[in-house]
Amino acid sequence: MQVTVQDLGGCKVHIDIVVDQERVNKAFAKVYRELAQAGINGFRPGKAPPRIIRLRHGKEKIEAFATADLIPEVLEEAIKQENLHPIEQFQIGPIPDEADTAEQDPAEAAATDDDPVAAREAPAADNSAEQVELRAEENQPFSFRATGTIQPEPELCEYRGLPLRAPQVEPTDEQIDAYLQEVAEKAAEWEETDREEIRKGDCVETDLEIRPEGSEQPLHQRGERFFVGSGDHQPPLDEALIGARCGTEITIETQYPEEHSDPALAGKKATVTLKPQGIEELRIPEIDDDLAQQLGAADLNELRARATAEVRRRNERIRRSGLEQQALERLFEGSEVQIADQLITVGAEEQTRVLDKQLKAQGLSLDRVLKDVDTSADEFLGNQAKRMEQSLKVHLILEAIAQREDLEVQEEDIAKELTRMAAEAETDAVALRAEIEENDPGLREFRDRLRRQKVLNFVVEQAQITELPMELYLKEQRLEAQPLGTDD
C-alpha cells in the first residue's frame, strides 16, 4: 500500500492511497466467502464458486461490496502509518489525473447520496468514510483520495533541561516568626476598652440617624457595629469615626450607592449623624507558653516546631506550583502548535453551553450576565475561543511529551492518588473511586489529570533549577506579574 499525504494548510490534508492488486483480491475473496455463506440456490452454504456468485449478484454489486470493505480498512491503516489525528469524517474521492485541476475543491469529490453498498451490512470500521461511486476491480490495483481535517503534531521545544527558578523550602526564622504572628492574630479577641478616642482597627458600636435628601422623617439605627477602616462599609461611614470620641456626635453628608440594599437609601444623598457608644479593640495574645497550650501544644517550643513544619509545607506548595507554572509557560512559548479552527470553535461553544446551563441552574442567564457586564455575545465567544486555544495548545503539548516519553497512568498511580485524596477528605478510597466512576466521564477525566501531572513532574525533574531565597523569589514573582511601565 502506497500512502502520500499532501498538506493543504489550515490543518486540512489529502491522503492519496494506492492499494496493490493482491490486497484488492483479498477484499474480493472476503466478499465471495460472505455471499456464499449467505446461501445460493443449488449450493450448500459457503460452497458456491465466485463465478456463480457473480452471476447471481452482478459484477457491479460485488465490486461495491469489496470497495465498502476496502476503503475504511486501508484508510485506518494509512492514518496509523502516518501518525495522523483526524478530527472529522474524511471525504472520499478519486485521485485526480495530473491533467485535472490541482485546485479542485475537496467538496466536489464528496460522496454521492446513492450508495449500493448500503444494501449490505459491511463489517464495521473505526474510521468510517463517506464514500462516492468508486469501484475496486479484481486483479487491478485500486486508488482513492481521502480529504479531511487533522490535528497536526506539535513541534516541541527542548523540554529537557528547562531553566527554572524556585524558592528554597527550608523555613527561615523570619518566616516562622511571621507564621506565629498569624497564629496569634487568629487567636485574638475583641475586648472593651476604656479608651475614648477611636482608632483605625477598632470595633465601634454606634447609633445612627440618617436623613435622606427630600425626606422629612429620619431613619434610626441603633447598635450598628463598625469595623473602623475595614473598607467593608458603603458609604464609608466608618472612616468618619477615626479620631472621634465616644459620646460625641459626628454629622456628615454622604451619597449612598445605587446598589445599596435599602431601597429608601439607594442612590440618594443623605445627612448622617453618628453617635459612638462603645469601643472594642482586638487584643492579640503574647506568643508564649500560654498561647501554645491554648492551641493544644505542650509549650512554645512545640508550637514553634509545628509552625516550622507548616511553613515548610507552605514553601513546598509555593515551590511546586511555581515550577509547574514556569514549565508550562516555557513549553507554551517555545513550542509550535497549529490548532484546527474546528476544535477551537467546538470547544468554545461547548464551554459556553456548560456555563449557560450552570447559570440557569442558579436562576440566571448568560444573556443577562453579559448585559450586566456590558459585553456582547460575539465578544464573549471571542474571549472563550482565545482561552480554548490556549487550553488546547497546553493539552496537545503535554500529550505529545507523554507519547514521546511513554508516560502512561498505571493502576497503581490511580490507587495512590485515591488514597491521598481519601485521607484528605477523611473517607474511604474504595468509596471515593466508586463515586468518581458513577459520573461519566469521571474516571477518564481523573486519569487524564494524573497523566498531565505525570508529564509536569517529568519536565520539572529534568529541569535546570536555580534556587533562590523565598523572599527574593516572591519579589521576582511580583515584578513579573506587574504590567510594563509601572513602578515597584
Please provide a written account of the structure.
- By secondary structure, this protein is an alpha+beta fold.
- The chain has three domains: 2-149, Alpha-Beta Plaits, CATH 3.30.70.1050; 189-283, Chitinase A, domain 3 (Roll); 312-481, Trigger factor, C-terminal domain (Trigger factor, domain 2, Orthogonal Bundle), CATH 1.10.3120.
- The protein is built from 13 helices and eleven strands.
- The protein has helices at residues 21-38, 50-57, 59-81, 173-186, 289-294, 300-334, 341-361, 366-372, 377-404, 411-425, 429-438, 442-461, 470-481, and strands spanning 2-9, 12-19, 91-93, 142-149, 163-167, 189-192, 203-212, 219-227, 250-255, 269-283, 464-468.
- The strands form three sheets. Strands 6, 7, 8, 9 and 10 form a five-stranded antiparallel β-sheet that branches. Strands 1-2-4-3 form a four-stranded antiparallel β-sheet. Strands 5-11 form a two-stranded parallel sheet.
- A hairpin with a 2-residue loop joins β1 and β2 (12-19).
- α4 (173-186) crosses α6 (300-334).
- The longest helix is centred in the middle third of the chain and has 35 residues, at 300-334.
- It starts with a strand and ends in a 7-residue tail after the last helix.
Task: Give structural attributes.
Trigger factor, domain 2, Chitinase A, domain 3, 5-stranded antiparallel β-sheet, 4-stranded antiparallel β-sheet, Alpha-Beta Plaits
Topology:
Layout: E1 2-9, E2 12-19, H1 21-38, H2 50-57, H3 59-81, E3 91-93, E4 142-149, E5 163-167, H4 173-186, E6 189-192, E7 203-212, E8 219-227, E9 250-255, E10 269-283, H5 289-294, H6 300-334, H7 341-361, H8 366-372, H9 377-404, H10 411-425, H11 429-438, H12 442-461, E11 464-468, H13 470-481
